[in-house]
Amino acid sequence: MTEIIHDPAALRRRCDGARASGRTVGLVPTMGALHAGHLALVDQARERGADFVVVTLFVNPKQFGPGEDFERYPRTLDTDRDACRACGVDVLFAPPVDAVYPAGFQTHVEVEELTQPFEGAHRPGHFRGVTTVVTKLLLLAAPCTAVFGRKDYQQWKVIDRMARDLFIPVDIVGMPTVREPDGLALSSRNRYLEPDQRERALGLVRGLRAAAGAWARGERDPDLLRRLARAPVEAAFDRVDYVDVADPETLAPLRGPSATDRAVVLMAAHLGTTRLIDNLVLGEEPIP
Ligand code: AMP
User: Fold this and answer.
1) Which of 150, 188, 222, 225 sits in a 20 to 30 Å window from 251, CA-based?
2) Minimal-distance CA residue to ligand 1 atom 10
3) Ligand 1 atom 22: the closest Cα is on which residue?
4) Closest Cα to atom 11, ligand 1: which residue?
5) Which residues 6+ apart lie within 8 Å of 13 measured at CB?
6) Cα distance between residue 213 and residue 283, in whole Å
7) Which residues line ligand 1 (CB under 6 A)?
8) Which of 152, 180, 280 to mutate to test the pocket of ligand 1 (most atoms within 8 A of CB)?
9) Tens of each residue's pLDDT in the chain, 288 residues
10) Dihedral of the CA atoms 184, 188, 192, 197 (nearest 10)?
11) Out of 38, 122, 126, 270, which one is annotated catalytic?
């Protein structure tokens, strides 16, 4: 039976109680509109030893910029609750905005270098919103294992850095991206896509495949890998925010013809009013 909790203090009491009875807390932060990618994070928490799993559902206004999709972001609490019940989630934490940010709230958390490129450059203030809310969620549930999707690769790296920098007693786990049979990464935003856009969305995975195929054949020039990844995205999408090749740990973009031994391809592009992202660590993750 999944218990629904709206009050932050009640969540902390419930996690403390679970630990007092010998259980291990797992935390899966989400914005809801749950899909199989989110539920894989729940399974991953259990595989990592959590036997008291909390899914949080909060569409965080601080991580959306002006003109982004905060208002229209899908809110499907009833079906999310059913999905949590079906996979045995112990607690669904769905706080109202004014419980997370009560009047007078004025404390934010910022991670420096890792948030500068890519999503940080294209969505000013986004990571400050993410790291602030995730810190609050981690502090309610900790000590715990917290699972994040590598689908949001930069976010996972930023949160991992933040938790270590702030001595937050959590084990941050990155779960591989769950995809549709044709390769499209599952995303709550996929439901915005019209049928023709759903087809064109495969430009992302075509770009990842082009770079991964070249990498498998021994290509290591980051400029060439970037061009190979970019072409299918440009061909299919209305607007490209970035397609780049970066160091998988520092996220520094790789430039020039110098060979590289580890690389992640990161991409974000728009189809109409829908913005999609994807990524692949070359040679380390299966080609989608
Ligand atoms: P969101 O609700 O989109 O903020 O995502 C909540 C968590 O689910 C984040 O850690 C995401 O990275 C993760 N996630 C979203 N989509 C996927 C996916 N297709 N595969 C794995 N994890 C995902």
Assistant:
1) 188
2) 148
3) 149
4) 149
5) none
6) 9
7) 30-31, 37-38, 40-41, 148-149, 151-152, 175, 177-178, 185-188
8) 152
9) 999 999 999 999 999 999 999 999 999 999 999 999 999 999 999 999 999 999 999 999 999 999 999 999 999 999 999 999 999 999 999 999 999 999 999 999 999 999 999 999 999 999 999 999 999 999 999 999 999 999 999 999 999 999 999 999 999 999 999 999 999 999 999 999 999 999 999 999 999 999 999 999 999 999 999 999 999 999 999 999 999 999 999 999 999 877 789 999 999 999 999 999 999 999 999 999
10) -10
11) 38
275 in helix, strand or coil? strand
The whole-number pLDDT of residue 60 equals 98
H-assigned helices in the chain:
8-20, 36-47, 77-86, 97-100, 119-122, 126-141, 153-165, 195-200, 202-216, 222-236
Three-state DSSP state, 124:
coil
Which ligand 1 atom minimizes the distance to the CA of 155? 12
38 counts as catalytic? yes
d(CA 1, CA 85): 6
Q: Which two tokens stand for residue 257?
A: 């013809």
Residue 124 to residues 71, 127, 144, 228, Cα–Cα distance (Å): 18, 8, 30, 28
Distance 151 CA to ligand 1 centre (A): 6
Q: Which tokens sit at 271?
A: 């189809």
CA torsion through residues 74, 75, 78, 84, sign: positive
- Tokens 């890519």 identify what position? 118
Q: Ligand 1 mean position to 28 CA, how many Å? A: 9
Q: Whose structure tokens read 């769950």?
A: 178
